[in-house]
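Structural prep section.
Before we set up the soaks we want a predicted structure of the protein with FE2/S2 (inorganic) cluster in place, mainly to decide which crystallisation condition to try first. Input record follows.
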Amino acid sequence: MTAQPESAPEQTIDVRVRVNGVLREVTVPSRRLLSDVLRHDLRLTGTHVGCEHGVCGACTVLLDGEPVRSCLTLAATADGHEVTTVEGLAAADGTLHPVQQAFVETHGLQCGFCTPGFVTTVAAYLEQNPDPTEEEATEAISGNLCRCTGYQGIRAAVLRAAELRKEAAR
Ligand code: FES
Ligand code: FES
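Run finished without errors. Recording the tokens verbatim:
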């Protein structure tokens, strides 16, 4: 009988990341994905994982305010940075983020699986373009897939969220 070679223990890394305003520290295998750290290590299951190939956008979170596919991002990339998940968008008193409120008002939610990725994507988009046209709203959500194909409600949510932001700024 031939002895099996012993596999080398997987290398681990320490990751310090501010998630939704709170400093979190985890020691994880160096190849661990940010989506897995958020969902499994930090139990922030609002970030959904669909395709795991960067296609559907369900796993989108904000890294220093920029939308990223957490299923394609190594947790190590987030070390020393700021991550915002869908759980971090509402105000401390529970008031929904304008994009969340807009999804409710315009029936942008169907099964809800894609919703966290849309909400984080749109929240970041409106920071860059606070007054989108209908065409720009369509473009804003073009990188996210909704298997229920309820895109009209989601596009309406982008436009309604822009209105809500303006109202809040008055
Ligand atoms: S799960 Fe990351 S893009 Fe689909
Ligand atoms: S609401 Fe069902 S996948 Fe988008």
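Observations: The two ends are 78 Å apart (CA to CA).
Flagged for discussion at group meeting.
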